[in-house]
């Protein structure tokens, strides 16, 4: 089936993209807000892939020149359709960045443990190794290296990846990640996300210096890690770990 852009009957591109979920629409339900953001991000990914297919069907890419060597509009391609597809693609890519940033904050709020006061939270943080805060009523001695234990979270049915190895002194090692950890969510990227494990690479590439939330299963223990990608740590890549698809 031939892909057409803009879609009939209108010959004009959308004047705006769909609004992103707003936290005020989910009062007291941070996990539902996070789920809504994850769904919107997945929808955006699908729309982006559809627009890329449109460009491909016209023999073009986002970088294809629309003029000939003499500077005249090319007559061998549908310039109108390509320009409109590119315009929509830029808007969606900006939306993806925005929803990813919001999702990072939403996941932190969804995973945050309730506390009676800020001083209690500070005391808990200082009492835990690596400054991590215990998120369940399980005694501290049962924590996994002081990282967050997860009793009831947004937890996918299956893992998206497995940690094959972790380099010493790397950002992954600093986060507490270990070989054989099963990754169920990598900053919202799950087994159901478009692109799967490849989406993790794309996310990391644009997240240097940003803290990412990772949900892993370790010896039947659910653990949340905070990982900050960075270059210059002394090894290859920004994570220092090797992960494999499951």
TrEMBL record:
<dbReference type="Pfam" id="PF13180">
    <property type="entry name" value="PDZ_2"/>
</dbReference>
<feature type="compositionally biased region" description="Pro residues">
    <location>
        <begin position="1"/>
        <end position="12"/>
    </location>
</feature>
<feature type="region of interest" description="Disordered">
    <location>
        <begin position="121"/>
        <end position="145"/>
    </location>
</feature>
<dbReference type="Pfam" id="PF18265">
    <property type="entry name" value="Nas2_N"/>
</dbReference>
<protein>
    <recommendedName>
        <fullName>Probable 26S proteasome regulatory subunit p27</fullName>
    </recommendedName>
</protein>
<dbReference type="GO" id="GO:0070682">
    <property type="term" value="P:proteasome regulatory particle assembly"/>
</dbReference>
<dbReference type="InterPro" id="IPR035269">
    <property type="entry name" value="PSMD9"/>
</dbReference>
<dbReference type="GO" id="GO:0005737">
    <property type="term" value="C:cytoplasm"/>
</dbReference>
<dbReference type="InterPro" id="IPR036034">
    <property type="entry name" value="PDZ_sf"/>
</dbReference>
<keyword id="KW-0143">Chaperone</keyword>
<dbReference type="GO" id="GO:0005634">
    <property type="term" value="C:nucleus"/>
</dbReference>
<feature type="domain" description="Nas2 N-terminal">
    <location>
        <begin position="35"/>
        <end position="112"/>
    </location>
</feature>
<feature type="compositionally biased region" description="Polar residues">
    <location>
        <begin position="128"/>
        <end position="144"/>
    </location>
</feature>
<dbReference type="InterPro" id="IPR040815">
    <property type="entry name" value="Nas2_N"/>
</dbReference>
<dbReference type="InterPro" id="IPR001478">
    <property type="entry name" value="PDZ"/>
</dbReference>
<feature type="domain" description="PDZ">
    <location>
        <begin position="158"/>
        <end position="226"/>
    </location>
</feature>
<feature type="region of interest" description="Disordered">
    <location>
        <begin position="1"/>
        <end position="28"/>
    </location>
</feature>
């Amino acid at each position: 089936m031939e892909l057409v852009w803009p879609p009939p009957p209108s010959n004009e591109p959308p004047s705006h993209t769909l609004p992103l979920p707003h936290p005020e629409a989910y009062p007291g339900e941070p996990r539902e807000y996070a789920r809504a953001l994850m769904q919107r991000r997945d929808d955006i990914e699908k729309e982006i892939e559809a627009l890329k297919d449109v460009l491909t069907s016209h023999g073009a890419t986002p970088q294809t020149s629309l003029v000939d060597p003499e500077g005249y509009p090319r007559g061998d391609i549908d310039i109108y359709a390509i320009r409109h597809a590119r315009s929509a693609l830029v808007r969606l890519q900006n939306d993806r960045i925005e929803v990813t940033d919001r999702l990072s904050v939403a996941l932190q709020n969804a995973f945050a443990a309730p506390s009676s006061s800020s001083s209690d939270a500070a005391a808990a943080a200082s009492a835990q190794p690596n400054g991590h805060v215990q998120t369940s009523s399980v005694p501290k001695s049962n924590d996994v290296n002081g990282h967050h234990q997860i009793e009831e979270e947004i937890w996918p049915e299956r893992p998206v990846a497995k940690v094959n190895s972790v380099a010493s002194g790397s950002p992954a090692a600093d986060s507490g990640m270990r070989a054989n950890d099963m990754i169920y969510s990598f900053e919202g990227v799950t087994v159901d996300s478009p692109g799967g494990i490849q989406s993790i690479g794309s996310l990391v590439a644009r997240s240097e210096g940003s803290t990412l939330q990772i949900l892993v299963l370790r010896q039947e223990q659910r653990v949340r890690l905070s990982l900050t990608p960075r270059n210059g740590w002394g090894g290859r890549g920004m994570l220092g770990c090797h992960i494999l698809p499951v």
